[in-house]
Amino acid sequence: MKSQSKQPGTQPGTLEKPDGQPSPNSAPNALRTVAPAISNSKSSTARSLVLGFAFLISATAAATVGTTLALIAPLPGALAPAEGQRLLGDLWKSGFQYQVARPVNILVMGIDRVPDAPDGSEQVFAGRSDTMLLLRIDPTDNTVNLLSIPRDTQVEVPGIGTTKANQANASGGPSLAREAVSTALNGIQIDRYVRVSTNAFRELVDLLGGIDVYVPEQMTYTDNTQKLKIDLSPGWQTLNGNKAEQFARFRQDSYGDIGRVQRQQALIKALRSKLSNPLMLPRVPGLISVMQKYIDTNLSVEEMLALVNFGLKLDKNDFKMVLLPGRFSEPGEFLSSYWILDPQGRDRVMHEYFKVSAVELTSEPGTDLSSTNLRIAVQNASGQPEAAGQFIQYLNSLGYENAYPIQDWADQQSKTQIIVQKGDLQAAKLLRGALRFGSVEAASTGDLDSDLTIRVGNDWLKQQAAKSTK
Fold first, then answer.
1. Taking the CA atoms of the chain, what radius of gyration do you get in angstroms?
2. Domain 2-359 has CATH 3.40.50.720
3. Of the listed ranges 21-25, 56-60, 171-175, 425-429, the one predicted with least confidence
4. CA-based diameter of the chain, in Å?
5. SS3 (DSSP) at 332
6. pLDDT in tens, 336-362
7. CA–CA dist 391, 403 (Å, integer)
């Protein structure tokens, strides 16, 4: 792993910019040294470590990224496996001594393969960003919010002009990428970056023994330039590294690059599930050792440890994902095809997920939450053919008149999900209150044209059956 060293004179614990200068809102106590936590038992300590590492690996691991090992690698530069074992043992005994003291925004980029780039060289990170994520870690409410930025998002890149977001890193490295993303997202401060070679994802999944993923349809595609051949059958599968990369990079459906983003979010959930297993703890040193060569970051050692410590206290319900709201460009609208961000949707997401103040917003946050304006996609996952139509009628009776059916979800679910497709958590919670059942899923894995997608589960059938017997 390549970690940028601090510049002389930088105060310990200060979150400085990538060029080594303090950020405008940095505070001397951005990281605090605290007394080591004492665990009641070895097993509870082990579980806490696993959960912390699980957060840090999966929080920024989307699609071609095996990223968060960048956040947990305990030393800059190469680390021998034996040394990694020793250091992790020290951490186990003494606890983590650093804490995140203020919200931190981290830009995570999965970098396309650069032909003929030697392994371990800077050239490995000089390609376009196949994946872009903005991660907010907020100790004030113990939450992690993750914004997926489609690679084809139209942005203004200084010195280049209008282009796709994925071009910024190839043209000017992480500093230019950070500037382009910040400008597109209402000038939000980006404190740190993490760049990961696409090779990392395959090895990460293999080291974990594979991950369980639901493949919704047959996926077949060949890309000779990227040496990528995709051939996946539908249904639940345990994917190895190669197959998981195929799932992540497939883009031959009607959603194109946005479909990839949705699958990236599905992989994040699968990684989080895998890494929450305490049996994964013995594999962590091996993960660190293998992943270091694939990662470039300007996080300091202390900051990495602070992030690990933060992960120990994270509840799975405090992790939210959202897609940058927008639309596909029309044929002939531009010389290239773009994802055109929706200014109002962007402002809502930046306000609700990244706490950008009202002064910084370019328009009023929020959307019309009235039931007549919400577009609600209804997807049947109950196995009962009539369920979607009946559910739409029920929504209409509640005043939600703009509901429509989409293709059934083949994997039957016991519980109904309300998927926050465009990041409008307030609207989702209001709908959940009206329904009085189901759970809110903070992810953008539903129908692209919807504000909310409801995946109808068996709990709806049971509720209807109970009503009919009264």
1. 22
2. no
3. 21-25
4. 75
5. coil
6. 999 999 999 999 999 999 998 644 445
7. 9
